[in-house]
Fold these 3 entries.
Entry 1:
Amino acid sequence: MEVTTRLGRGVLYTSVLVTFLLTGCGGQKKVTILRDAYNHPRIKVDNAGGETDSLLYEAQAKVEAEDRLVQMDLLRRLGNGSLAEIFGEKAAAQDRMALSVGFKQAARESWKVIQANYPQVKNMLEAYARGVNNYLSEIGNKPSVVRGLYQQWTHDKNFSFSDPKKFAPWSEVDSLVIAAGITFRLSSSLEEKAMMGKVAMTLIGVPPDLSKIDKFVKLFDYRPIENTFILGDRRGPLVAKKNKATSLEESVVPRKLPAKAVFFGAVLEDYGYPFTGPMRKSPSGSNSWVISRKAAGGRQAFMANDPHLPLTFPTSLYEMALQDARGVNLVGMPGILIGHNKRIAWSLTNQPADVDDLYLEDLNAAGTQVMHNGKWKNLRVVDEILRVRQDDGSVKQTTLKIRWVPHHGPILSDHIVPFKEVVSKIPKELFENPAISYRWTGHEATTELVAFYLLNRAKNFSEFKTALSYMKVGMQNVVYADVDGNIGYYSHANVPYRSYLTPWPVNVPVLGSGEMDWDSDSTGKTKWRTTFPEAYNPTSGFIVTANNDPLGYTLNRDLSQDYWGSTWDAGSRAQRITEMIQAKLGRIALTDVEDMQYDHKDLLGLKFIKFLKEQVPATINPSREYQEARSALINWDGLVTRDKREPVISEMWQRAMAAEHFKELVSASGEVDVLSNLTGATLTAKTLYHTLNDSFNSREKVKMDASVSLMSVALANATKKLPSREMRWGQYNLFKFYNAFKDFLPSPVFPTIERDGTWTTVDASGRKDDTGEQQGPNLRLVMTLEEGRPISGVNSLPGGNYDALVSDKWIEELDMWQAGKRRELVPFVD
């Protein structure tokens, strides 16, 4: 057996050693693992025949566990509800939530389907699990920083990673439960619908006044601010012909609603949601675009991607090369998520289709059946084990009985305290034994890992689409390019039809009695959409996705017609990227694409300032503070950079306008919390913009005067709340990595840095006011597909590949990322 050879800061594991560690075989099969100066592993398997995949994914698991074992373990515990097993009672509420929502159950169902139908993916998951467990056996009880953490957490000085009673071996379901948790974050609107129920209650009242339902519907405007759609406004037959209205008064359908339905919104009055508040999440997003060779004006095509996930510790992504594919993946799952192989490149942005619902159920007195379509149906019960570490190191074990409504999903009000409180307030005359259930497409057995297994091996657009047809949840905009010069786009997932929306507003909880179910066929099976956005070699020569509406579904106020979703981005980032591409068509180089990713022009802010300049008389408020703020805004170039003070004024002004616009809602509720969930959100910006724009377009004096007053009063209020008249954006928009497990995991000493950009700029920067969590580019990847040459790439990862608990090397990548610079993408093994 050969020994490990060190090459500078990289490490070369020689083939015989790694093969021995992974398989226990001799030297015929060759596994090479190299690490570069940035700790990016590259793995290649030779002479292994049918065992290539097994060895490849065992090796991937081993290197990821070497670098991110703590993160991998916490992610699986977060999904399978076992954080309290090491962190005690303070994590028990989080575990009850995870077990109630059903991530573990969803992962189990997916594993059954994969075992029965997809042998290659089954082999991939089994190999990944072996690789992690081989590493656990290797490190055992050897002294290390990571082992020290577990000794502390478990109160066990004899803790060993190789003891299955002390540290659970990795399983195939662990990878799938991580996938379920990630797709939930990307696709779920549970928290938003819960808050919308509360807003509905505030406006409609208790007991509900059904005549006020239109007031709630008219409160929000889901139309985009920029009509920049991924495929243009090509709705055609996908949208009902009668859906032609553009004004609110024309488009809202009269609502005739059962009192019980509205009351579900009413009972959310004291709703204390266990997740972070729905609209408090920073309204950031992701960008991805592809430019053809012809549009670029030479022999090179370009693809860019910068997903805007939370900038947390541990960092979300991990860069590596696997055989013939390279890019980034999410630790705990095998394969490459974003990147390229030898033939094609692909990149992702989230597609926020509406794929879940909250239901108010009517149970029998015994709590064993649920009323549905006039009949009692039996509930299903799943026993889940909750383990809670005690102060003396022992573990207390209890059984949680998770009741499932067979046609909807798990009941959340059994074990999640805020939901319990909600149902306890429902009068017996409406529901004798109420419960809240949750339906999400991720509860079905899903095959996302099948999709990415095939995507990593796809050779052309047809195989690319076939791979994505296995995406069932966590819908993505996936952009495509190949070495033959073709570009394309496809998006696929299970998206339901909701016929009941004709009388019912979107994004609120619904009744579980049957009349508000997703559409189904004659056999009772859910009817999923069969047409999806798609493009191949468009005449424009480029495709831009930035979480924007793909086809113009939200151009009309009434979304009930052919409803797909409502929470798409306002379109500012997509519009800005499109403008920059169009400005350089025929002469685009790699450096131009890199500059586009690092652009900080705020189109949304400039739109509001245009109203201020053209519609609000300069003399409306003669105070020095007002005039200085007004002058700064109307002379601003729209660049949100850390050295400017105008972005601070713009940000404070927009927040003040939101507060002024929604003051009736705040006054009615008596709670500032409602406002805190509305200010700074994408939906608020859309509503505010269209309120102003429609009023000025109407030329009606009353409406115009109201808008002028709103803007001027808000600017006056903003000047009083400015932290400092001279504060720069960089001082206001400070960034520091957020510890996602701060209650359990020690935080390394992270630097605080000044960030450019805001949530509407291409280089986006957003922050949750309540937690400090920031969102922004988790990578800045640009791939070049040059005629006659291999695909190349440049990238930067703000958190690097290193584990910040044991190394500070990640700081090098953070500096590079902050400056908008990149280095070569991890190379393949030659």
Entry 2:
Amino acid sequence: MKPREAFIVALVLLAALAAGTPRHALAEEPPKKIPVTVTADKLDYDRASDVFLAVGHVKIEQEGVRLEAEKVVLNNKTGVAVAEGNVYLQDKGDVVHAEKLQVNLSTREGIVTKGEMFMKKDNYHLRGDIIERRSETVYHVEHGVFTTCDEDDWYIKAEEMNIDMERYATGNHVSLRMAGLPVFYTPYFLFPVRRQSGFLIPEPGYSSSDGFFLGNSFFWAISDYKDMTLYSDYRARVGHGNGVEYRYMNSRESLGQAYAKVWDLYHTGVTRWDFRFQHQEEFAEDLSARADINLVSDDLYYYNLEKKLETKSKPYIDSNAFYVERWNTASLYLLGQYSTDLTRTNETTVQKLPELRYTIYEETVAGPVHMNFDGTATNFYKQAGPGARRVDFNPQLAAAFGSSGLSLTPRAGAKATFYDRNAVSAEPTERKYVYAGADLNARISRVYGSDGDIGYGRIRHSIEPTIAYIYIPHVEQENIPLYDSVDTAAAALNTTTLAIINRLTARYKASKAAKNFTTFDVMVFRLSQSYDLNVREDIPGGARRRSDILGELSVTPPTSFSLSANAAYNTYSKAVSSSSVGVGFKMGVVSVSLSEAYIRDPAARFIIGGTSFKLGKWDMSGQLQRDVHNNKTQQENYGLHYATQCWGIGMTYTISPGETRFMAMLDLKGIGGRVWGEQ
């Protein structure tokens, strides 16, 4: 019984009996002016023994707390209050039913006899012959039952349980029962009730490539703001991996986590490892630092030891650490970047160690004219072969003019890049040029409809034609080394791009309860093509003046459907060069997603499709990832899950090249889940 509940019982009895009310009486307000109602067939006070007694249909109510019993006795000398006979105690959502309820008002300790406690927050049900409250958070239960089910679909039965709501729960002679039948027994059981140290539930299973596997974890709550998880990953045909993950929060401005895993592979004598570290530090509102480190022992680590297709097929991983200082219209950052190529050895991979960048954006110069500037100083490093140093400056001036749906933005800039060595020798080299361009935009629109109480309101249809021009002169760069996009940005251009955007913008209110309409683009369709005046088409096999026609479509209504698609059409070959489409649909019990990507040269086509159905308490799902060009299925996933209010059971079956994997999962709300599997 909670301390506040016991105190209210005593306060109510004292207030009611002191008022001298005999039968079905209404008490005066107790201290602190909290309204209290007490009714009973009989209310007595024995001055000699200093005992208060309420008998017959006792009902006490105060601020959401209600106590009902056939008899309530308060010994004012000992501070012990006892309620007997069909005891019912409700404190907001928490409820106690018992034959007898006893509480010591001085120590706040209490005993529930032949009773049941319900705690609404976590939907905990606790029953026992004796439920003894030994302190504010500690309970002792004899011949007890614990469950999170309202209908006892599953429950834990123990001869004796000790529960600390802030730490652990332990039990002796514990059995887990499903539908009343015992499915698991242990002479002793321990699990953390709150964020406390302890072993997590093991995860065993079986796959055609790994054989039997077993995952074990131990959680260590070091402090309120630090914790650690130790992992054991055993795979019978592969080896044994041991891992550790450390999480910390020094403050809201300083937090991070570190993860490391080491594998001892059987019959190879090889040790493989994976290391990750993330940290963020906010020194001030405009000053911060970040670190995101990802390293592996070799380029095949993910491919051999990870199960997720997205992780197995990673071509590279990056490690970054940077320091950023920001002002109103400028920023300065220092970056260190280390890339690990997972498709080959990493000796020739170019690293940025470090790079210093200073940026100015939209700094007003005069009137509508503003300035942008981007400057970098970079040190390139390779394990094998010489590195290089590069400094790049890119100032730009632009202006914005416009009114009545028409705008013109001319711009001009210069670019100067200096290298301490060129592509073929140790001699320094440089590249300098100026460029110019302009954007002309128009917007013609019309509004349809009107706002209502719910659903779609006004819809704006706008047509936005655009003409963009850019000029970059021819720059000799045969000796320019190629490290990233900065080095390839100087291709000669004399290009005009025509584009037209068709846009539907809607106002939408999901319900009458919503205060305001939200505005969003329901549909955006963009069609564009570029034309380069510098290109000579009379050269056999040379470049073409006209680019592919690019179409981009996005449909995102606020309901259950979404569509995104793009395609590039070559007007010379009169064929689609590339395309992609993604569709999502969800209505009622059905959810479907489909995406396709196509490239003509080199030929490639991929399809990813998924669907799920929810029928009552059953969820069924399936996903297929297929390489259509090579007629090869990359991965198939099938799942079946049954969930009730307090427990669930599920099965997944995965087929991937070289492996089939079956897993079954049992989830018990309140104590975690158990996983096992077979092929």
Entry 3:
Amino acid sequence: MVAEALSQLERHQEALEACNRAIESDSTSTTAYREKSKHLHKLKREREALATIERAIELDPDSEAAYLMKAEILASLRRDDEALAAYDQAIQLDLGHFHAYGEKAEFLASLHRDEDALATYDQFIERTPHIFKGYKEKLFFLLIERKRYTEALPTFEQCLARHPEMAQAHDWQGRTMWYLDRYEEALLAYEEALRLDASDEDLYVGKAGVLSSLKRFDEALTVCEQAIQLAPAKASVYKEKAGILTRQKRYEEALSAYQKVVQLDPNDAFAYEEVGDLLCQLGQFADAVKAYHQALRLMPDFLRVYQSKAHALEKLGHYEQALATYNKALQLHPNNGHLLFSRAGVLKKLLRYEEANADYLNAQVSAQAGKSDLLLAACCIIAKVDLKKVADAKARLQAAGKEISDEVIEAEIHLMYQEQKIASLKSSPLFLPVCLFMQEMQEWSGTPKQFKELLSTHFPDDLKRLPRSPARLVEVVKEITPALQEEGIAVGLPSETTLMTLTSKST
């Protein structure tokens, strides 16, 4: 039918017109009305779609497909109870066919009525316990969609009781045990599955994953090779191998495996991301950027890849390109605190400190909203740029004729801080007496009590401003040690040596 071909091309208006022509030619065609309702539904013309599917049902009241279409349209109109009734009518028309049960269960799950969805799967299993499909879909819902691993145990036990010789049943047992971190039991399940069907490469992949979780990496890789021999053109077997090699930090081998994945499946955005990550691990940032570009071409809203690509560009010193990457990501996710924080770091590299501070503030506000990420909020506060210190550092650097960059400015700020700290330490009433004494003695050692007596003899006025306790005097010496070292005086204190020692470098 022309309408079906146009539907495959997402050309729904043209498909609708084709349906109308078919109806004009044969006004009793159930298929034409059903197809017409589908295209009206795709065009968001729900009320017309509902009227059209009702006509299809009038013409063929035993059409399961028509009731399923009606249920889908009613669900779009938020007429949930009527939608469920339509699903039930479809089920009654073919009690042994899973499709209607599955559609109803998915709809209930979308309404967050998980228990009712599970009851629907159970309804099919009770009616057709000999059919594996019901068990499989229920397990998929529990394990993959809802991660209710423990609750899956009775279902696969029920399944195994019915299908002990079905490899797929043991496969799902292995998956469940794996998710529950019961790796030895998972391994036994996969070995039984492979005994029943040694030609299924996916079972080898599952077993390899369990062996990897047990850190039996060499065995896992051997099993991967068995899977590759069975399916040398299947991307997923190479992906499992690559993941195991990555866990072993065998990055070059892992990269080769992931490159095989993208060769076999060039539309796998996640595989391109892994290629980029491994290239970064190997320091090949330019090639990593190319891999991330491919991932974003396939999945333009892949947030994590924007961050990885920007990071690789930063490593290359391409800060403007990194900024452009963050800007694009923030167009998609304008309130993402981690993106704002990372962009602020790039703005700092470009000496655009005011803009960086604005991003740090926005990231902090985002992180503190609902106390969602208090660590990020703290990092924003710490990372905020002190604009006065930056201005002072730039002035010093310009006066010295030095090249200015963010790294140089940070180093200068650190130097300024150290200078201020040393100046503060030199203001201690103990600093000058020690320096003067060491000009005369060059080297001295003794107990803290003898050190106090020395000060009392040579610098009685200064001693009045110092602690009376010899132990506390040692603490003051410890505090001013950096300033003394700058003057060429090495200090050894009782915690490190038997006696307190002072030595001038000129000795």
